Amino acid sequence: MTTVQAPPRAPEVLARCRELVRPALEEAVGGMHPWVAEMAGYSFGWCEVGGAPAAAPGGKGVRQALAVLGAEAAGADGRAGVPAAVAVELVHAFSLLHDDIMDGDGTRRRRPAVWRAYGTGPAVLAGDALFALAVETLATAAGGPGTLRLLSAALADLVRGQADDLLFTARPHAGPQRVTPEEYRAMAEGKTGALLGCALALGAALGGAPEATVGVLARAGRHLGIAFQLVDDVLGIWGDPAVTGKPADGDLRMRKMTYPVLVALGSPVAGRLPALLGRPERATEAAALVEAAGGRSAALAEARTHTAAARALLAEAPLAAGAAGQLHTLLDHLADREL
Amino acid sequence: MTTVQAPPRAPEVLARCRELVRPALEEAVGGMHPWVAEMAGYSFGWCEVGGAPAAAPGGKGVRQALAVLGAEAAGADGRAGVPAAVAVELVHAFSLLHDDIMDGDGTRRRRPAVWRAYGTGPAVLAGDALFALAVETLATAAGGPGTLRLLSAALADLVRGQADDLLFTARPHAGPQRVTPEEYRAMAEGKTGALLGCALALGAALGGAPEATVGVLARAGRHLGIAFQLVDDVLGIWGDPAVTGKPADGDLRMRKMTYPVLVALGSPVAGRLPALLGRPERATEAAALVEAAGGRSAALAEARTHTAAARALLAEAPLAAGAAGQLHTLLDHLADREL
After folding, report:
1. In chain B, which end has fewer C-beta atoms inside a 10 angstrom radius, N or C?
2. What pLDDT score was predicted for residue B162?
3. Is B152–A160 a contact, with Cβ atoms under 8 angstroms apart?
4. CB–CB of B89/B202 below 8 Å?
């Protein structure tokens, strides 16, 4: 009698990859300066301020999963992707630490952000240390040095995307100077897509994939990242605070230039929207107006376009079937999360 | 008739290397996000806030000179060391930007520090961008990827040294918890020595030096860095403000844990020194007490020890004679600057 095993679901895929990567990630962080290691551990949800063990929610580990699946998709054992997984998780942690400083965001995963808990200077330092450790992880991994070009290109794009995002908040809401959807896509590709693409590509490269496959996976990851950011924008306005861990309408209160808002601002229905943005007491009204102006549906349609593009690229690359299936599962999960 | 050319003096060596490196450094910075490129240009003294061209004093360019001389010492053309020179100057600029935030230091080379001129968030971002660009510069240079291990190790040590330096200010002035000279040396080696050693080693590696020579040069640069930091400490207390660009006794006012101070605190003559530190109005008195307790002469003696160690290592390595001579000239210059 043959039992057909159901393919793993997304949370199982994520959990399996987190488990595979965790020892190497802990070892890397454990080699840091003790003070900096504590801040890193706090940001991963492993400890409290002062170092007492904790089991606070860390991230879902999307980036590390992409690196492991990238290696598996190349036909290698998932363990081949672990140095890539560690590197991209360290880069992600670095960018969260520094972005929270730049955005003045005092809360991260329902806890005080590192800069709020430890001070701005120490948080800058901890971010730098995570960044340096990411580079070191790849530079010292077997086969790693040749892949550092992928990481450094992603780092450059990440910083470029963050610069654009910061500058967007200062742009006018109307007239020729306002942010265009094209500018938004470039920002989201840099800020979110570059590292997701890098995770997949790095994992595949360490798994021995040919250069063309690595390139296709990098592009697939970038599309996934744009879709991810678009869904994030929708959740930032209409998400359930109990699920997102952020206040309802938070992005509207903070006057963040998200995709639904910039689409709405370009619609004739927008009317008084510019006057409502950044005013916490008018956030509910603003959200209704953005929805009426088609901002929500446009963002979701755009996210679907990029998810489809990612899917098409994955279908085109010569990947190991099992891993490819799990990549598709993960992709669906991320595109539809909590919507 | 033969004319014997006098060997170049240190300022000429530095100027020659700056000239050789400048086009590549400008090209690298020119490829950054325009906003970030302006902050980088401001930090190099190339422009004012807003982007208007300036010729403000940049650094002396010690690190880029070491990279160029490292390549020449390996028997290569100095141009072989240029990617290394660009990378270490970018790392140096990154560390100055972030250190000024961490130390709350509002002035750098007689101008407002980047965080004071552009804001803390943008300065964090600009530092990150410089860091990423340094890695990218080496990752994309011919022969560069294999040397990234040298850079990443230096980055890790740099951050570790900065962490120690920040924590030193919180340590007590007396009793078993006070900072020891050994701890100081480790801090200075990380904070200053690692990048100087990396500059020499990277240049030599790109110049084709054998691994053993690269290792010896890295160690020589680390000793030079410790000596450099010790001289900096002496100048921070007894330096001429017109030359250093910093207030007299500045380090004593800020309660910085420098080598002269920690030696003095270990002496029976120290007496009331702990009570004077961090009190601007008592800084002159504190400086006299540190000197009477032997802090100044001990720091200079320690600097000489490390300069001698660097010199001995350079003498031991098989280096091209001309470049080795210029390295010695530079070393003497740095060890004796403005004392």
Report:
1. N
2. 95
3. no
4. no
Does the distance separating the beta carbons of B120 and A140 come in below 8 Å? no
Condensed to tens digits (0 to 9), the pLDDT of residues A115-174 reads 999 999 999 999 999 999 999 999 999 998 889 999 999 999 999 999 999 999 889 888
Res. A11: pLDDT tops 80? yes
Tell me if residue B112 falls in helix, strand or coil: strand
- Whether A124 contacts B125, CB under 8 Å: no
* pLDDT value, residue A247: 67
Q: How many CB pairs under 8 A join A and B?
A: 130
Q: Which residues contact B250 (CB under 8 A, 6 or more apart)?
A: B236, B237
DSSP count for chain A of H helices, then E strands: 17, 2
Q: What is the C-alpha separation between A167 and A47, in angstroms, rounded?
A: 34
- pLDDT in the model for residue B241: 75
Is residue B94 packed enough to be buried (19+ CB in 10 Å), middle (13-18) or exposed (0-12)?
Answer: buried
Inform me whether the C-beta atom of residue B169 falls under 8 Å from chain A C-beta atoms: no
CATH fourth-level superfamily of B10-336 = Farnesyl Diphosphate Synthase (1.10.600.10)
Question: Quick check: A187 and A168 in contact, CB under 8 A?
Answer: yes
pLDDT tier for residue B256 given thresholds of 50, 70 and 90: confident
- Give yes or no for residue B170 having a pLDDT over 90: no
Distance CA A48, CA B320 (A): 54
* Token couple for A45: 């949800």
Which residues does A19 contact at the CB level (< 8 Å), separation at least 6? none
Q: How many CA atoms lie within 13 A of A243 on its CB side?
A: 10
Residue listed under structure tokens 């209704």: A288
**How far is the alpha carbon of A246 from chain B, nearest alpha carbon, in Å?**
22
Nearest to A132 among B33, B120, B152 (CB): B152
Taking the Cβ of residue A149 and every Cβ of chain B, the question of whether any pair is shorter than 8 Å is answered with yes
Q: Which residue does chain B place closest to A105, by CA atoms? A: B121
DSSP B58: -
Q: Look at the block and give the residue holding tokens 């962080």.
A: A29
- B149 and A146: CB-CB below 8 Å? no
Cα end-to-end distance, chain A, whole Å: 40
The pLDDT of residue A240: 80
What pLDDT score was predicted for residue B248? Answer: 65
Say whether pLDDT at B315 is over 90: yes
Question: What is the share, in percent, of chain A residues with pLDDT greater than 70?
Answer: 95
What is the Cα Rg of chain A in Å?
20
Does residue A338 surpass a pLDDT of 60? no
pLDDT (0 to 100) of residue A331: 92
Global ipTM: 0.94
**B191: pLDDT strictly greater than 80:** yes
CA angle A177, A180, A181 (to 5 degrees): 170
Q: CB–CB of B290/B262 below 8 Å?
A: no
Q: Does A285 touch chain B (CB under 8 A)?
A: no
Crossing angle of the two packed helices A194-206 and A211-238, in degrees rounded to 10: 150
| Closest CA of chain B from A171, distance in Å | 14
Reading the block at residue A77, the tokens are 């054992």
Alpha carbon separation from B84 to A217, B21, B325 (Å, rounded): 31, 10, 21
Structure tokens at A38: 């504590």
What pLDDT, on the 0 to 100 scale, is given for residue B251?
A: 74
Query: In the structure encoding, which two tokens stand for residue A304, read together?
Result: 């679907």
**Measured distance CA(A81)–CA(A203) in Å, rounded:** 4
The DSSP annotation for B50-87 comes to TS-B--------HHHHHHHHHHHHTTS-GGGGHHHHHH
Alpha-carbon gap, residue A43 to A40, rounded angstroms: 5
